[in-house]
Amino acid sequence: VQLQASGGGLAQAGGSLRLSCAASGFIFSINPMDWYRQAPGNQRELVASISSFGSTNYADSVRGRFTISRDNAKNTVYLQMNSLKPDDTAVYYCNAPSWSAWGQGTQVTVSS
Questions:
Q1: Percentage of the chain with pLDDT > 90?
Q2: What is the C-alpha to C-alpha distance for residues 82 and 96, in angstroms, rounded to an integer?
Q3: Residue 17 binned pLDDT confidence (cut-offs 50, 70, 90)
Q4: How far is it, in rounded angstroms, from Cα 92 to Cα 109?
Q5: Pairing assessment for the beta strands 66-71 and 9-12 based on DSSP bridges
Q6: At residue 52, what are phi and psi to the nearest 5 degrees?
Q7: Is beta strand 106-111 parallel, antiparallel or unpaired with respect to 9-12?
Q8: For residues 95 and 103, is the Cβ–Cβ distance under 8 A?
Q9: Which pLDDT score, from 0 to 100, does residue 1 have?
């Protein structure tokens, strides 16, 4: 099982970024997928989840600003992040919970 996250970078407060996570080694379409983040000194926290059917859940801190989606034809899960805040600065990881698999993480830095 491999997860390759990309799309992080530097954004200004109020800006947007789109993260991608390409999955391989398992049947992507029937598996739920998660995005987590970890800021320096903090525990890793769940940001958003999407089921195999496409139902979604979000942390209160990002609801209304972030959107998780998936493209089963491309074995890819996305995280569209809008209205970014400096508190969103963290390393973002994708996760396949059924496989306990993690991607390498992608850094998101939001400047004020």
A1: 95
A2: 24
A3: very high
A4: 10
A5: unpaired
A6: -65, -25
A7: parallel
A8: yes
A9: 92
